Backbone:
């Protein structure tokens, strides 16, 4: 028992404080329950959780240190109120749970994407696992699975990293997607950027005579345009950016209808490629 108690005391004496997190030099600094602070030469700070996964010891990056700050109330002195302080703190439990949920979700998405790449349909088991993985992730932060999947759609290499246990970039990308989803101005910027990208791809596919690619791109653009009717706030912000969206003149239609009309999205492949 005393060996166990001294183990708890030794681990607590190693625990990081707010001051240590802020001023720690480059390297790996141990906290408690397998949690480490990783400080890069650039000064960037991130959490790393060491845990057993599938019978192997793995290190999982859990994002920037400022994302889950060290509790201010933790005292660097372990001799006061020791019974309370040797208990697992909410921070390691939160980071552990988030790491597990992110990994499970990434692996569920990756399994489905990999199957599609190989021409395989999504199985019922994969659908159920994705549903459970989404629920586990969203329980920690509402909308997290939606934001994470948006990031995966935009960067397949990110999905591969996350499914393999490298979660730092995934956390950062998820946070960015959250900002875009909740900030109307950022959503408008993303819409314009994506629209212009698809428009360029559409012209290239048309010039090259790639009928299937052209049709698929036109379909994506039409889906984006029609979706504006469900987001009045975004549509209002984009109304003053018509020139960036390739709208040469206004006909009094809604913005979505203007996009469909000006880009001939209602004509599809009939624009001249032939059938």
Residues:
């Amino acid at each position: 028992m005393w060996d166990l108690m001294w183990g708890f005391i030794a681990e607590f004496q190693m625990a990081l404080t707010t001051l240590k997190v802020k001023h720690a030099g480059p390297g790996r600094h141990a906290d408690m329950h397998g949690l480490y602070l990783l400080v890069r030469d650039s000064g960037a700070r991130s959490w790393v959780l060491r845990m057993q996964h599938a019978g192997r010891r793995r290190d999982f990056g859990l994002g920037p240190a400022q994302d889950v700050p060290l509790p201010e109330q933790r005292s660097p002195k372990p001799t006061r109120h020791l019974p309370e302080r040797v208990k697992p703190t909410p921070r390691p439990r939160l980071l552990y749970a988030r790491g597990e949920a992110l990994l499970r979700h990434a692996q569920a998405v990756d399994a489905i994407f990999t199957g599609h790449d190989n021409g395989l349909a999504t199985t019922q088991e994969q659908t159920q696992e994705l549903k459970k993985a989404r629920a586990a992730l969203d329980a920690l932060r509402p909308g997290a699975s939606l934001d994470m999947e948006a990031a995966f759609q935009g960067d397949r290499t990110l999905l591969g990293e996350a499914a393999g246990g490298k979660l730092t970039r995934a956390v950062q990308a998820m946070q960015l997607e959250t900002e875009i989803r909740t900030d109307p101005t950022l959503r408008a910027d993303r819409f314009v950027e994506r629209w212009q990208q698809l428009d360029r791809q559409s012209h290239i596919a048309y010039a090259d005579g790639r009928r299937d690619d052209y049709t698929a791109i036109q379909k994506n653009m039409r889906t984006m345009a029609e979706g504006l009717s469900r987001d009045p706030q975004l549509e209002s912000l984009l109304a003053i950016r018509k020139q960036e969206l390739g709208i040469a003149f206004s006909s009094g239609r809604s913005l979505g209808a203007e996009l469909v009309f000006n880009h001939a999205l209602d004509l599809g492949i009939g624009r001249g490629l032939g059938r």
